[in-house]
Amino acid sequence: MCSCTYDEGVDEPNGRRRRATVKDVAIEAGVSRGTVSRVLNGQRYVSDEARAAIDAAIAKVGFIPNRAARSLVMQSSQAIGLIVHEPHSLFVEDPNIGAILLGANAALSDADYQLSCLIADTSRDIDRLARYLSGGLIDGVIVVSARVGDPITRAIDNLGLPATFVGHPRDIGEAAYVAIDNRGAAREITTRLKATGRRRIGMVAAALDRDSGSDRLAGFVDALGADFDPQLVQSVPLYSYSDGQAGMRALLERAPDIDGLFASSDAVAAGALDVLQSAGRRVPEDVGIVGFDDSSWALRCEPALSTVRQPATELGRAAAESVLRQLRGEDAGTGARVLECPVVWRGSA
Amino acid sequence: MCSCTYDEGVDEPNGRRRRATVKDVAIEAGVSRGTVSRVLNGQRYVSDEARAAIDAAIAKVGFIPNRAARSLVMQSSQAIGLIVHEPHSLFVEDPNIGAILLGANAALSDADYQLSCLIADTSRDIDRLARYLSGGLIDGVIVVSARVGDPITRAIDNLGLPATFVGHPRDIGEAAYVAIDNRGAAREITTRLKATGRRRIGMVAAALDRDSGSDRLAGFVDALGADFDPQLVQSVPLYSYSDGQAGMRALLERAPDIDGLFASSDAVAAGALDVLQSAGRRVPEDVGIVGFDDSSWALRCEPALSTVRQPATELGRAAAESVLRQLRGEDAGTGARVLECPVVWRGSA
DNA sequence: ATGAAAGCGCTAACAA
DNA sequence: TTGTTAGCGCTTTCAT
Known about the structure:
The structure is a homodimer.
Chain A: E1 10-11, E2 17-18, H1 22-29, H2 33-40, H3 48-61, H4 67-74, E3 79-85, H5 88-93, H6 95-110, E4 114-120, H7 123-133, E5 140-144, H8 151-159, E6 163-166, E7 176-180, H9 182-194, E8 201-206, H10 211-224, E9 233-236, H11 241-254, E10 260-263, H12 266-278, E11 288-290, H13 296-300, E12 307-308, H14 312-327, E13 336-339, E14 343-344
Parallel strand pairs in A: 3-4, 3-5, 5-6, 6-7, 7-13, 8-9, 8-10, 10-11
Antiparallel strand pairs in A: 1-2, 12-14
Helix pairs in contact in A: 1-2, 1-3, 6-14, 7-8, 9-10, 11-12
The structure holds a DNA duplex.
């Protein structure tokens, strides 16, 4: 039966209604609070009669356990936080975050944990978040898109809260994380782009303040080896469509002879593609272009983008499992897990 | 000072470290727990010396209040839930949800409330969610994208939890909500499309199980009046790109002479547009097409979509303010607020 | 202005 | 198997 069908409350001497407590249930069932608690927690050593009487009483008075009280005494809340630290705009655009959330939720749901997604937007948020996390209402956290030097990281570390990061900022120390091999994947797709015969391959490199961004650049450099020309790299702040446009414009100005492009994300690639086509370049004939994410942007481009598929749902699931393991004490919170991400080749290069 | 810089804990006789409590602070400062509590809550009637000693003690032992304990005694948690009830895929694609989240977070942040985003994906989630909500860890909720007959709605109603809906499912009774005038906006943009001289205007109508979906259809019917032809409406389940494609294909088959289209969302419009162009129709010359949302899809289309701008951030903000008002008892929880949404006209019609 | 003490609703250790 | 009791960490009368 769904808990939402209960009637609520208990009559007070003064005529008002009040939320039922274990005590009300105990009185109604004619047993002690201890016995009620045992039934609630499914423990042994409860007679069938007592159990039946208590179940009936619970339904009758519409008892719903108070989790704050339970958290207080148990020192745990059966809730896991997922912290998203993103500047305004990006949260709306980033196609991966939603999938990570869903993956994490699925895994936690199986373990009967509640996922609570917490967003850190301003510095004020960060401070409040730190207080919130330390309050005992959250047993552990998954941290998405942290930067190096992120105050959230410090706060979590200070609190000693079980945590798993999605991605791998350099300064999380021994903390557990799940990630994709950004560098390897970038290297692979750049190599593949090179193999289509391009001679002047550039990159619009977004989010270099994040491990994902800098690793993708590193992989790009790896792949090009001696052919690498720093003039052909344009850095932009965000993984966004408009930053892709801006980056491509700058690159085109500096190196009109460019014939290949690796963009840090599909959104960036889409922006670059539009600029390229407006400038009269044919894709893939004149310029080959590849992205990263395999998000809905990739399929909407004309031609569709060759890109790298990120297993975002799996990332969320793995992160949740990692936190759960830490909670069960099966894991010191220092594991790393790196997921595969295949290249998917389409028409843009 | 940021609370995350505190050292943590207090030494135990047995050599272990333990989280500091008010009692530790009281002992360290040489006062009683009551006085500490007064300082914590910024109450009057505390001497300057006591206050100074307590502040020092708090810093020294690294005290962080336990919110579970505070919630228990205060019967409130300073946290608001935002419930997203979406099937898998859509959460990832819907451009509005992220903006609503950000808007709500901003408003709650100003009031020093923590936003906790809770996602309901499976029926199991819903049940767990109902238990979670009833636990006293959440003071109120914002409900996004509920459907008619949604079990979440029932659960909230049973719990008597302060709630505000984003959107207006028919069966939320007197509950507070904030919404846009879907019907009016749909009527307006359809009228405008009609004014471009189209004779055979169709609609790909998504999500008719939601108030937003059915209202947009109603507005479309309003605008067409006697010209309305049910043959020109194709219903699809979701506000998605692929459903837009499917809907357009069906429509094209049934009515090859179609020369105008209203799509329930920009994503749907984008799908329809691609199908139309693949079928050799020119837009806007042969077929004029308009969408809804003014999301990033709209600008990426070629030509860019004429559409209706949804004030998603404002919606989130207004919903948060409504819940906050209920919490302060300034509002019985029955208010409605309808936000304007302007038509933005671009090249697709 | 401050301290003492009584709970908030729950669980768990100890008796019986 | 069950009842009793002592807290979990905090706020809040009620005295002083």
